[in-house]
Every structure is written in C-alpha cells, then in structure tokens.
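Hey, I'm writing a tutorial for new members on how sequence and structure tokens pair up, and I'd like a real worked example in the thread rather than a made-up one. If someone can provide the structure for the chain below, I'll link this post from the tutorial.
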Amino acid sequence: MFEGEALGLKTMHDTNSIRVPLPYKVGSLPTGGSFIIMEFIEFGRSRGDQSVLGRKLAEMHNAAKSDKGYGFYVDNTIGSTPQINTWTADWIEFYSKHRLGYQLELASQQFGDSAIYEKGQRLIKNIHPLFDGAVIEPCLLHGDLWSGNISSDTNGEPVILDPACYYGHNEAEFGMSWCAGFGGEFYSSYFQVMPKQPGFEKRRDLYLLYHYLNHYNLFGSGYRSSAMSIIDDYLRMLKA
C-alpha cells in the first residue's frame, strides 16, 4: 500500500504542477507493519482557492500523459480495496474491467449481490455510446480526490495527498466529487486548461459509480442504493 502511495506521490510531484508531499522512504518495521516517510507540509487555515485548485489539477492532467496506455506501474489501493492497474490500450476496456467490473465482482463475492452484478454487467456492455465524440487520453490522476485529501499550504497554494494514482480519462478524477465540494470556480478554471469534452455531463455519473461501488464494498449496504440508482438510470438512458 505504501509503495503504491509513494510512487503515486513521486509521479505527481515530478509534474511540477500542483503541490504534493514528496515521499522519502518506504520500508518494513522490525516489529511488523510498515512505514512511509514524506515531506512535512504545514497546512494553512483553509482548503485554498477553488479556482487555483482547478487550474493546478488541470495542469497536472495536461503535463503527464502515458505512452503505455491506461493503468499504472503498480497495483495500488482505493481506500483498502485493491485497485488493479494492468496497462490497457483502450480506456473503455480498462474502466469496464479494472474499475467497474472488479467492484461488481467484489459485491457479488462479499454480499452475494447478483442483482447489482448482473445489471452492472449489462451496463458495461452498453457504455460505448457515452463516449461518442470525446477525445480520451491517459492522464495522470490522483484517483481519490475528496475533501479529506485536499488542503493548502501556509501560502494558500493547494496541496493534494493520499492518492490512488493511475493514468486514465481526466474526467474520472471527478468521481469523488460527491464529497469533494468542487464549485463552479473550480470547474471553470479546470476547463480553461483541459477543455470540456462532448458528453461530459452524460458520463459524470459513470465515474461516480466506481466510488459508490467501492464504498458499498468497504462500508456496506448504505451505499448500495446510490450505486444501483446510477446503474438503473443508465440502463434506461441507453435502452439496455
């Protein structure tokens, strides 16, 4: 877990865009367990300026593109759930298999939830039209961007931490927006650097779905209805 975190932090740090704590060392403790040592950043009093956060995040997405396709150098974790990052040439295939498909299988194994599994698989088979006209590139993503992982330093510059990095479609970065508090200023600054793609609004819930499924698998049935309602809405929209 710490090795994946350290590699993600270092990869984001190397873009020279948004501030992240530089990792120094990861290792095993003689008494069992592990450690990670990283740069100390003193946080300011607020989460910083939303428009600056949007611009800097877009600069990171714009600066770091992968020539290996979609994925990451190692598998890592989203919360405590394994996140599979096998390099894949096609984004829809990657997101279907290693994001939505993986979480649906977990829900089926953990809870015997065949209903969400079967409907989710039906959705996966029918998502291609949601990407019509969109230009998709493998951008470096933080991967778990919610309010607990966003802060600012004492100069008011935004800081992001505790990532679940991979190279993916930039819009997937907003998958935790339901608990990130991104406002209009954030998005308008972001889209000045990374222009909004056709169909952005239609795909938005598809990226929320991964995180709702993960919360269902981590924290239980309280999140099931949110995930199922997104699946049902898409099945209606796509007439699947």
